[in-house]
Amino acid sequence: MTNKAVTAQQETAKPKDAGNAAQFIAFVVVLLFVVVWGIRNPSVLLRVLAVMLGFGGIVMIHELGHFIVAKLGGIRVEAFSIGFPPVVMGIRKLRKGWRIRLLPKIGEEQKLQEGDNETEYQIGLIPIGGFVKMLGQSDTGAAEAVDDPRSYTNRPVWVRIATVSAGVVFNAVSAVIIFMILFMNGIDLKPAMVGQVMPNSPAYDAGLKPGDEIVAVDGEWFVDFEAVLLAPVLSAPAEPVSFVVRDADSGQEKEIRIIAEKQAGDPSALRKIGISTVTTMTVEPQLVRSPALAEEIYRQTGLRPGDEIKAVNGQAVATPWEFVQKASQVFQPQVTLTVSRQETLADDTKTMVDVQLPMQVGPAVENFREEYDLSHFCSLVPRLKIEAVAEPTRPERFMTWLKTAVLRRQPRPSAHELLRPGDVLVQAADVRYPNYRQLRELTTDYKNKPLPISVLRKDEQGGESVVEVTVMPKARVGSDRVTIGFVPGLDLDRPVVGHLLEGVGLTGIKSVIPAGAAILAVAGRPVENFYQIAAVLQENAGRKVGIEYQLDGQTGSASVEVPLHEPVHAQAVIAAGIPLEELTRRFKGDNPLMAARMGFKKAGQFVLRSYVTLGRLFQGSVEVSALSGPVGIISMSYQVAGGSLSHYLYFLGLISSCLAVMNLLPLPVLDGGHIVFLLIEKITGKPIHERILAPIMYIGMALLLGLVLWVTYHDIVRIVSGS
């Protein structure tokens, strides 16, 4: 070789060496930064490592499935990577020794000799996934034509289908294995117990009550609350679901059959039976791990993590349903909760503390079946007022911008702009002082039509005047429920009658009290609001009392026989949300076979739930923004990683089940899409032409990327806002 040739070769190598040196220096700097940061934040580092190992491991199991089946099917695998590029290290078995590449140049070609291993095993810098590179295979377009008989394109169709399907199968199997291991050791889950029962619901009609335990669903005796919720959703319309229920009082078991229904006002449009899960009486202790959130809850409620509720307005409560039942009878602006509190972790001594919380009163029954279901105080129905006004949704804001900026049209003002919290409904269309039922019916009748509304509004000086507005009721996305855009409530601060129920099964009012009349006294005691009316009625249950009222300066009187039971047909709830700890129970298989069966059942539940969610997504009852992408999943993984190992593994089993479902969808780029293309090739006898396949793949990739970016944006918004 001449000196000139040697010099040229050295000059060519300098830029490459310089690039490798810069890459190595950058890697060392990043590594040192991570080490120093980890030393200063060891707990955070451990959680980050748990997320990378957990989430990355689930994705890697998927790729391992492709790798193993490809090898067994005779497909040449060029690379198997743990993590995504840039490559930190590559290892290959050579005919003589090993080749280890540290921080190789991106796109660097490798020369192989006969006897060298065909696969390089790589470690990527981004440890949240991995990939398998097969000869002649492409995820984003037509497969590369290669003469090698071990090329992906040259293997039989059934081998390629098996290879593509293997990732999904491995994810499903790994989920079963994870759950099996958890059930062998035992894990705390929500039991199939009845917390609350919605009146007029299928569960209410079947006789279920708080505290009852469901021990079997459709013959399946391993049930947690997830199974109880899932069975009605998957049942066919008008098809009864069989439940074996253990009575909370007697302990006896009986079988009942319930036909699930879609609940009125439920935007999910799913069939349910109308029960909720059970909580404890303790404020979520885990809030101590989020000091800012715990402090915000304390500011709103006066409650601390670990507080245990002992009494409601001085009346002792022992169970969650007793607590709800006692609170539902508190027709007062505020309620006093007595809680047992441990002031410091170092001191086990507990003290009794009283906290004041605001109350709201609303319908005892949301899904009205008859007039009696309306909120009423011994047939006296208060006027409705506006509790809150909904903010415009993103689609509504976009349409407003489109009409204003693009179409140059003046959009109709929304309820958010026209109505205010505290407004009292005087009239809607031709109905004066509408009640809940009438307002709901009017809203439906005036769908996409102007609805005139008159409200009584206070000004800054405290004076009241009637304000007339026009709103446009619209259907919710993916639901047949029509809304105006505000939350109605009862005007309990003033004793003004908006409606009088007649013929509802009560002995009732002996003479008519006109709508708009102000109640002056009940049983001879002056009243200033409906809270005081409720107190007098409850004190006089089973007796006949007189009522004095006034309207337009004219006074009148009436009498009513107060029912012995339920003189006030309404439900009071605590307005401030109390984050009570959920009740859990240890689920553990008696033997490995039972644990395996439980693991298979749990993985199946999550797979079915994923398909239900996708169905709701396509129906429009679930918005795309409600989904979570990689950022959201990693964020949730980080939060769950801060808890117990068993629940973190449970979460990973859930993610693995969901990945199996998502990757099997028949969409381009995803494994399900590739399977569809291969089936078409099997039927037609030839692969889809590149001119047809390439645009489909690129469009699918663009749509998938757009979806990922959209959900990632909402993930970041949720993380930043703390929601």
Domain count, please report it.
4
What is the count of DSSP helices, taking H or I runs of 4+ residues?
Answer: 16
What is the level-2 CATH architecture name of the largest domain? Roll
Distance between the termini: 69 Å
Strand pairing plus helix content: what structural class?
alpha+beta
Low-confidence stretches: 1-15, 504-508
Indicate the overall shape: elongated
Radius of gyration based on Cα positions = 33 Å
Instruction: Quote the CATH topology of the largest domain.
Output: Pdz3 Domain
Name the strands of the widest sheet in spatial order.
12-11-13-14-32
CATH superfamily heading of the largest domain: PDZ domain
Question: What does this molecule look like?
Answer:
- With 723 residues, the protein is of the alpha+beta class.
- It folds into four domains: 1-38; 137-185 and 591-723, no CATH class; 279-363 and 575-581, Roll (Pdz3 Domain), CATH 2.30.42.10; 371-573, PDZ domain (Pdz3 Domain).
- Helices cover 38% and strands 25% of the residues.
- The chain contains 16 helices and 34 strands.
- A five-stranded antiparallel sheet has the order 12-11-13-14-32, with helices on one face. Strands 26-30-29-27-28 form a five-stranded antiparallel sheet, with helices on one face. Strands 19-18-20-21 form a four-stranded antiparallel sheet, covered by helices on one side.
- The relative contact order is 0.11.
Q: What's a quick, concise take on this entry?
A:
With 723 residues, this protein is an alpha+beta fold.
